[in-house]
Amino acid sequence: MSVVALVNQAKYSVFKWRCELSVPKKLALAFVVAGLTGLLAQLRIVLPWSPVPITGQTFAVLLAGVLLGKWWGGVSMAIYAALGFAGLPWFSGWASGVGATGGYILGFVLAALFLGYFTDRYIRARSFVSMLGLMLFASFVLIYVPGVIWLGCWLGLVKGSPVEIGSLLAMGVVPFIAGDVTKAVAAAAVARAITPKQAYNGEVDKDRWAGWRLP
C-alpha cells in the first residue's frame, strides 16, 4: 500500500473512530478542545483603543467543529463559554466573566456548531475552498455579529451613552479582519489536510462529491 493510501486510511479511521465514541469520551474530548481554546486565548495583542484584544483562540474555534464534528464542536465551545462566564480564568489574559468580549465568545458556539455540521454532513465541505468559505462566514457573521452587538451594549453601559457605529466598528471589527482571514486560511488548510475525502458518517453527498473539482 502506498504512503498516500496509508495516510488516507488513517484519516478515515480517526474520524470514523471519533464518530463512534461513547458520549463520555466525546465529552472528554470537548473539554480538551475547550482547554486548548483557553491556551490559545493567551496568545494576544492588546489594542489601546479597544477592550477587545487580538487573540489566537479563533483558530481553535474554527477547528473545533472539524475535529469534534456535528454538535460536539459546539459543546466544546459551550463548555469554554459557560465555565469562563462562571469564573474559570481561561479567557484572554487569564480573565473570566462576561466582559466586553462576551458576544464573541457566544459566537464561538455558533461557529463551531456550524462548521461541525458541514464537516460531518458533506464530503465536499472538506475541500480547502469550501472550508475557507465556511470559516470566513463563521468568523465574520456568526462570531462578529453577536460580538459587536454585545460590545455596543457593554460600552453603552460603561459610558452611559450609545456608541457611534463608526467607533464600534473601529474597536470591534476593523483591527481583526486581517488576522481572522489569516487564521481562517490556516485553519482551512489544516482541515483540508486532516479530513478524509470519503464518507465516515453517512454523508449526504457520498455518491456525488468526486464529480466536483474543488481543491
Describe this structure in words.
The chain is an all-alpha fold and 215 residues long. It has a single domain (13-200), classed as Arp2/3 complex 21 kDa subunit ARPC3 (Orthogonal Bundle). 66% of the residues lie in helices and 2% in strands. Strands 1-2 form a two-stranded antiparallel sheet. β1 (44-45) and β2 (54-55) form a beta hairpin. α6 crosses α7 (165-172). The longest helix has 32 residues, at 128-159. The chain is elongated and about 65 Å long. 38% of the residues are buried.
Give a brief outline of the structure:
The protein is an all-alpha fold. The protein has helices at 3-20, 23-40, 57-68, 72-86, 102-121, 128-159, 165-172, 177-194, and strands spanning 44-45, 54-55.
List keywords for this structure.
215 residues, elongated, single chain, two-stranded antiparallel ribbon, 2 strands, Arp2/3 complex 21 kDa subunit ARPC3, mainly alpha
